[in-house]
Specification:
The complex is a heterodimer of chains A (263) and B (260). Chain A is mostly helical. Chain B contains twelve helices and no strands. Classes of the chains: A mainly alpha (263), B mainly alpha (260).
């Protein structure tokens, strides 16, 4: 552990410096996450009709803006990187390093997040300048809980996707299989509409699946709304451990199969 | 013209042959697209579930829009993404040199070289949704036929915008991601234009003309505003296409091969 942290820090620094070269690209990556703003328009207009219970246009605006922030902070693409490294054989070099290759991918993600932060801050300021009614405030403890929830969401998403990435040892297109995970991420996570509007039957089941914790849960925590925190963190921890176990099993089995490129 | 059609057929049959090496992936894509379709209908249902009618649209009418959105997405995935996102690669590697030397229009080559079968399941799903909504709304065959022209015009607009953005990679290699932004904005086509606030409506009509691809065909199908919108769409499509050609010629003057 004592040798791991300096190594991780060094890798993050390297990737951070690397990432800073591509600032224009980064803005475009942020812009390609505009879906919550599109949905915000639809639902704010819907909120004006007064047909959605207590949810008003401002509530919808806050919800989808928080969804935008959560989406940006929890973005994961490790399956693409890993698949690329397996297919091209680059993984072989990394296996020679005296550190698990997993740390390098994680460092790349964390460094990218750091480069993203200033741009995200600009977005936040701009949004509140345009739409000051939507400003909401949080206490210090709420901020800490929100940070923990978003961190946990990222961890869960990352490990689930890393488990999917292990399939690259068997197929050349692991990311195609990962698309299956994208479906519930899109439609059962509260991305397309706040979970409160879902049919009751779904709302009874979903809290025990990983999906609402990808968007809805961190969003509600970030907005300072009432949610079942113990249940949320427990379910997220459970699914993270499940994904971790699957990842370790696949990793061991996969490494035995792996024989670098072209075999 | 005849030559171009032959070449295009060859391009697409070789692309399909190459992709048939990954048959399981095709099956997987079909499943993912189906899940996407079901999810999209569900997302639309949520908007209507409490009796809210966005801009007076009924659920079945909004389903028409979703059907056209699915067709547009299929086109974007089968043709646009696999071709136009690669322009930057050719610029970066300098392989654009070879394309420019070929005795065929370079814009044509870059736009049609690849074809991805992964978009095809969506064509089927989109048509099924259109059939279902059309039956629920009692639409007849001639109304379906009328929707073809605005749909094609919408696709021309989309192609031209995408190609023009792709062409900017002659100058800025790092901004090729702008096509991802365009793709993200297309998501707005899932909902009827009237479901959006006025400022969004303006944006999605004149800045990123998603309206012409999904809402306008649905409108024309229902017999509303037909002539005005089709005329507007035709003018828009013609202008956008001509612009993309002029812009490509202009951009090529600045192309100086690899490593420059």
């Amino acid at each position: 552990m004592t040798t791991l942290l300096p190594k991780l820090r060094a890798m993050i620094t390297v990737h951070y410096a690397e990432g800073l070269q591509y600032r224009a690209e980064l803005i475009l990556w942020i812009l390609s996450n505009l879906l919550p703003f599109i949905l915000m328009g639809v639902w704010m207009q819907a909120g004006l009709s007064g047909r959605f219970g207590s949810m008003t246009a401002v509530d919808f605006a806050r919800y989808f803006f928080a969804a935008f922030i959560v989406r940006n902070l929890t973005l994961v693409w490790v399956v693409w990187d890993f698949e690329q490294d397996v297919v091209t054989g680059t993984l072989s070099h990394q296996l020679l390093h005296p550190i698990d290759p997993g740390w390098r991918y994680l460092a790349r993600h964390l460094a990218e997040r750091l480069t993203r932060l200033p741009f995200l801050a600009i977005f936040i300021v701009a949004f509140f300048l345009i739409y000051p009614t939507a400003i909401w405030t949080l206490s210090i403890s709420q901020v800490l809980i929100a940070a923990a929830a978003i961190g946990m969401t990222f961890t869960m998403r990352y490990i689930v996707q890393y488990a999917f990435a292990m399939l690259a040892f068997w197929t050349e297109r692991a990311h195609a299989i990962e698309q299956l995970w994208f479906l519930p991420y899109m439609f059962l996570s509260g991305m397309v509409a706040p979970l409160e509007l879902y049919p009751q039957a779904l709302r009874d089941v979903l809290p025990y699946t990983p999906f609402p914790y990808l968007i809805w849960f961190p969003v509600r925590v970030l907005l300072g709304d009432e949610v079942n925190l113990p249940l949320g963190f427990a379910v997220m921890t459970f699914w993270t451990i499940v994904a971790w176990t699957i990842y370790r099993l696949l990793w061991r089995a996969g490494l035995k199969r792996y024989s670098a490129m072209g075999a | 013209m005849q030559r171009y059609l032959t070449v295009m057929r060859l391009f697409w049959s070789t692309s399909l042959a190459a992709e048939m090496e990954y048959r399981t992936n095709f099956a997987l894509a079909a499943v993912v697209s189906l899940g996407n379709m079901v999810g999209s209908v569900f997302a639309l249902y949520l908007l209507f579930s409490t009796g809210y009618l966005p801009g007076g649209w009924k659920f079945e009418q909004a389903m028409l829009v979703l059907g056209f959105f699915t067709l547009m997405n299929a086109f974007a995935n089968a043709v646009l993404r696999v071709n136009l996102s690669r322009i930057v690669q050719h610029v970066q590697d300098g392989t654009l040199d070879f394309i420019l030397l070929k005795p065929i229009d370079s814009q044509f080559w870059l736009s049609t070289r690849n074809f991805s079968a992964w978009g095809l399941p969506n064509v089927a799903y989109g048509l099924i949704v259109l059939m279902w909504a059309g039956r629920a709304l009692d639409l007849n065959v001639s109304q379906y036929a009328m929707a073809i022209l605005p749909l094609v015009l919408g696709l021309i607009v989309l192609y031209s915008a995408w190609f023009t953005l792709g062409a900017t990679s002659i100058w800025f290699v790092e901004v090729h991601n702008v096509t991802h932004v365009l793709h993200a904005l297309l998501e707005a086509g899932r909902y009827p234009l009237t479901a959006y606030p006025v400022i969004y409506q303006f944006f999605f009509t004149f800045v990123v003309p998603v309206a012409f691809m999904t809402t306008v065909p649905a409108w024309v199908m229902m017999g509303e505003h037909a002539v005005t919108w089709v005329a507007g769409g035709a003018a828009f499509a013609f202008g956008a296409f001509v612009f993309s050609r002029i812009f490509w010629r202009f951009a090529l003057r600045y192309y100086t091969s690899a490593s420059s």
